[in-house]
Amino acid sequence: MSETAIAKKQELVTLATEKVKESSSVVVVDYLGLTVGEVTELRKQLRDAGCEMHVLKNSIISRAVTAAGLEGMDDVFKGPTAVAFSKDDVVAPAKIIAEFAKTAPNLEIKGGIVEGNVSSVEEIEALAKLPNREGMLSMLLSVLQAPVRNLALAVKAVSEKDAA
């Protein structure tokens, strides 16, 4: 192998390592059997959610994950591999891929990385069932507003009782 080919592969490993390190979640999938149209649609949905998907050689992504200090993913990097990266929303790639897999049964989640920890297929699928960031913030806001709302209702009830 020529020195330029080795240098290019090393550069790809370096770029992939940076992606893995800066991502809050990484989902690895087997995309074999998807049509070009399906892959394009999946990429579009991921891009719209602020994620990106790359098809990488197993040797490149395996070295990148090892360079990022993660272990236990050797079984994941077998066969055709596409990797979805998300910097901000931990749930987005898992949710989009799991939802897309319902209409494209050839799309299969192989594993992933969540907040710097290696995750199994089951953990990624459980993550996909969680609400997205906006949904979680909405739930939190509801919980925070409940005591104030209840107090306001109690004050209103007391004032109406006194007025009667």
Largest sheet: 5 strands, antiparallel
Q: Beta-strand level of the residues, as a percent range?
A: 15-25%
The helix content, as a percent range, equals 55-70%
> CATH topology of the largest domain, what is it called?
Alpha-Beta Plaits
From the coordinates shown, what is the CATH architecture of the largest domain? 2-Layer Sandwich
Distance between the termini: 92 Å
* Rg from Cα: 22 Å
What is the H/E order?
HEHEHEHEEHH
Number of separate strands: 5
Strand order, main sheet: write it out. 2-3-1-4-5
Structural class: alpha+beta
**Mean model confidence by pLDDT:** 88
CATH class of the largest domain: Alpha Beta
Structure, described:
One of its GO terms (molecular function) is large ribosomal subunit rRNA binding. One of its GO terms (cellular component) is ribonucleoprotein complex. Keywords: Ribonucleoprotein, Ribosomal protein, RNA-binding, rRNA-binding. The chain folds into two domains: 3-130, Ribosomal protein L10, N-terminal RNA-binding domain (Alpha-Beta Plaits), CATH 3.30.70; 132-164. It has six helices and five strands. The protein has helices spanning 3-22, 36-48, 58-67, 92-103, 121-128, 133-163; strands spanning 25-30, 51-55, 82-86, 108-114, 117-119. The mean pLDDT is 88. The longest helix has 31 residues, at 133-163. The protein starts with a helix and ends with a helix. The chain is α+β, with helices and mostly antiparallel strands. α1 crosses α3 (58-67). Helices cover 57% and strands 16% of the residues. A five-stranded antiparallel β-sheet has the order 2-3-1-4-5.
